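Q: Joint fold for the lines below.
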Amino acid sequence: MTINDMKPGQSARILKLNRGLRAGRRLFEMGLVPGTRVKLVSRHPFKGPVVLQIANTQIALGRKMANSVEIEIQE
Amino acid sequence: MAIIVIGNPNVGKSAALNRLSGSNILVSNYPGTSTEISANSVKIGKKEITVFDTPGIYSIFSEGEEQKAIRDLFAMEEIDLILNIVDASNLERNLVLSYELMDLGFPVLLLLNQIDRARSLGIRINERLLSELLQIPVIPFSATTGEGLQEVLKVLERTPRGKKDALAKEESQEKKESQFREVSPVGKESLAQERCFTELRTGQCNGHCGLCSIPATTCMSIADWGRVEKARTTAYMVSSNLGERQRILLEKTQAFFDSSLWGTPVLLFLAYLAFVLLLKFVAISEGPITALLEPLNQTIESFLSQILPPGIINTVLSKAIPEGLIIPFSIIMPAMLMVACIMSLLEDSGLLPRYSVALERTGSFFGISGEAIIPLSLGFGCRTPAIMASRIMPTASQRFIVITLLSIVVPCAATLGILASVIAAFQASLPIIVGTMIAVLMLMGFVLSRLMPREDAFIYELPPLRIPLWSNVGKKIKMRFSGFFTEVLPLLLIMSIAVRALLESGFLEIFHSMETFTRFLFGIPAEAFIAVLVTIFQRYLAPLVLLNLELTPREATIAISMIALSLPCLPAMVMTVREIGWSGLVKILGLGFLTSCSVGIMLNLIL
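A: Joint structure:
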């Protein structure tokens, strides 16, 4: 399951980043680290970016980036 | 004594620094406002302190121009203290950078900035415990209210010069170099090596095992993971959340703008409103301003023609000076003022970055990622700072695309104003001109992005919505608008005199031999083609030449389109050379010239 499978309002825990090194490093620096809790705020239409809430910041992720972050849903 | 200010993007480094040193750095509510390291001198107590403000970074060890510039600064300057500005409401991620800074071996002072906001979010931080855990001084701070200011000043006064002894420095230098030089500590045990292999296979490379040639700045090292782990534990230990609390109005508004369904349409509607407001404001203010200026102009004209000896100088000056005053004041001034207001509000409220997200998908069709919206929209104010803001782009090729689009397609406020006036004067076709510009924007972006492959890796931090601080908005409007008096007005006056002189002297007659050529290719008279060439100096000057010609609406439409899509102005060129070098500028100039000519030929064929 990846961030793209989440619905707005759902929370999840990051399991793994499946991404090339460069983009992986950027995800890592923004705080998308395995073990972090994220909440999906919104999904922009027409396969636009998704907006995530991590602690008190909001991060927008392109769909391809979002597809490379494996998560497990937490209710 | 020298201190360096480092922190994550948009944590309020510049605002904190303004509060501390009384400096006047412009602040905005989006990540990436400061793009350069700036040095300021402040006197605190009896101490003369050099303060380096740096662009926001997430990690000092990663690749990127900003990170490299900061690392170079550590190598070049004798830094006595790192002032680490941390967003108190987002401690965990901010602490990763703090741990990196502490690993460098310099004394660090940590400011828990925006502590007021953190409190209003229900977050409590035990700063004493944090200070004990990190073994560095920690001060809760608010740039808005001034909380913590005295404590910081006290610490700065107490910090001795060159506290770090030579040995410690050498040690940290070695540590730093091993981080930068992607070398592994020698003598790894086989167990550790095996772990490296596993990590490599599972895609979690550690960069420090020496088993591959990937630079450490592009992947996560064991040290990186260690710092993340430490930051998480520390943040967990020192902060407590007071639990659910009432959401304030601002957060509700933010939720509305960020909602999947309403966000984008509302943002687009706001942009449309802003555009209509701009046009209406210019249209409404033109009449009264002209009426006010008319008597003054007549006085100047009669005064000049009386005091100057009769002859060509008399004719030129008495006509050119009133002409050179009326256009800037009646058209460019209102346009620049309105654009300055709109842009400052968008920046400070936090709405501008939301456009990046909303338009990410649209942008990707013509080869630019969402981040490009910020420099491109700043370009409607003035291109020169917008070119600098293009540093926000993640890759060099993306940056080139943005600078090219800015230089050739995006009209600045002054250009917009004057284009509008010429379009009205000749009854040129607005839909054709705007349509041509949009078509060129899309085509150029599309072609450039196909030539330069991009990694689809959009990731962007959205700042919280804020109510703009009016003093800051006012300061920005003043800064943006001052360009009118220092740059636009003098240049237009000088050019107006030059153009009038060319017309009166009959010098332009020489170009009549080009008439058949320009008419055949572009369908415009030779003089109008001269106006196109004038765009090299300053795009918004070129229409001045046109206003003195007699053109049919068709000729005017072609000429204005060619001017609107041509070469960048001189200040923009200087900035381009500074940012991406001469080769970049030459490419852009070539492309601009090609675009302008192709537009002329195409419109001549179609219309």
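Q: Anything notable?
A: Chain A has one domain: 3-74. Chain A touches chain B at residues 8, 16-31, 33, 35, 41-49, 51, 54-62, 64-65 (CB under 8 Å).
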